[in-house]
Amino acid sequence: MFFYLVIHADNDSATTSKLKVDFEDLEKRDEKNHLKKGLSKSLHQMSIKYKELKQDDTREYILRCFMYAITGGTTEDDIKVSLDRIVPHIFGNHDSCREVTWCKYEEDPTNFKYRSLPGGNPLTNESLKEELLVLVSKYTSQSNAIAELGSTQANESFNQMASSKAPKSRHYGGSCSLKNRLSAAVLKKKNEGYSYLPKVNEASNLSPGDFTTSLTLKMDAKRKKESRNQIKKNLRKGGYLNYINLFSFRIVVRWSGSTHDSFMLTNSSVPVYMELIPNSWLLGDSGYPLKKWLMTPLLHTANDQEVRFNTARQEMSLKDLLVC
Q: Any transmembrane segments, and where (predicted)?
């Protein structure tokens, strides 16, 4: 039996209290997305009082500074130190910024300007400074809970997926159709796409239906196009670095351990991403197929050039290529 002693969730005290009835040693840790939303809400409330925060760019910049501090530390002390440097940084004091990479003041102190603050200048409102210091102290006191942030984004995604077939506004949870509704939601959104409908018909000894088959193909094509457009948009917005990090931690748990690696790769979203990222490659072992973006070793070397290719491929670092 497995016991999960740490839970990452929002600050819903009722849920935590109920869980602690059965799990006395349960530790509550903050969740990244809810933490970010809470910070954003606090800054928005301050904008009612302070005109400096009425611009979206200014609030987003301060929010980024907070998230740099919170996610950049590995211990409680690291987070406390990082949080304490935020307000001085925003108000033009960079004495404590020497140890961080996100502050560029040390590179050119004379010409340094803030990209997202009005006029490129630091904030000067002392009353706003005091309120931001109070906000910092609030999160400093919670450094234990935010030292190891988790993410419930996968859970939220599945909840949204399930609600498409079993909305909360209707009491499907108490009906015998819930299992089939959840299965349909997962098939449509995650595994098969809309093409699961003709397959269900065939499994039920029904005609797949020409109209149903044609419609599901169109809907799957539309879904795939929207997905590719979103990927392109994210690439333009965030650059390629975020996708390099994505592939470094790509985990597929849909199939059993006996499933071949090449099959899982083909049925994942990785090929879609790699087709859109120019001049990038993955390194795969001999179990993967050779692609223009996937470099595999030569199984049988016939000359010195091929031997050197295999040797060089093995010695390439993460700086040179993406690793599969």
A: none
Q: Which residues pair with 210 in a beta bridge?
A: none
CB 300 within 8 A of CB 286: no
Of 30, 62, 65, the C-alpha closest to 44 is 62
Q: How many residues are recorded in the chain?
A: 324
Tokens representing 199 are: 């397959």
Q: CA-based angle 164:168:172, to the nearest 5?
A: 85
Instruction: Tell me which of 241 and 210 has the higher pLDDT.
Output: 210
| C-alpha dist (Å) from residue 13 to 6, 18, 22, 41 | 15, 9, 15, 19
Q: What helix, strand, coil percent values describe the chain, rounded to 5?
A: 55, 5, 35
Strand 282-283 relative to strand 294-295: parallel, antiparallel, unpaired?
parallel
Tokens 């990222």 correspond to 277
Degrees (nearest 5) of the Cα angle 313, 316, 318?
A: 135
Question: pTM value?
Answer: 0.53
Task: Name every residue whose Cβ is closer than 8 Å to that of residue 45 and which is 6 or more positions away in sequence.
Answer: none
Q: What is the CA radius of gyration of the chain?
A: 26
Tokens, residue 192? 């098969």
Question: Are 260 and 301 spatial neighbours (Cβ–Cβ below 8 Å)?
Answer: no
User: Residue 261 phi/psi, 5° resolution?
Assistant: -55, -40
- Cα distances (Å, whole numbers) of residue 281 to 75, 117, 298, 320: 35, 38, 16, 9
Distance CA 10, CA 73 (A): 20
Going from the C-alpha of 161 to that of each of 6, 14, 198, the distances in angstroms are 25, 25, 21
- Residue 36 near residue 149 (C-beta atoms within 8 A): no
Q: Tens digit of pLDDT for each residue in 142-191? A: 777 777 777 777 777 777 878 878 887 777 777 788 888 888 777 776 66
pLDDT of residue 240: 44
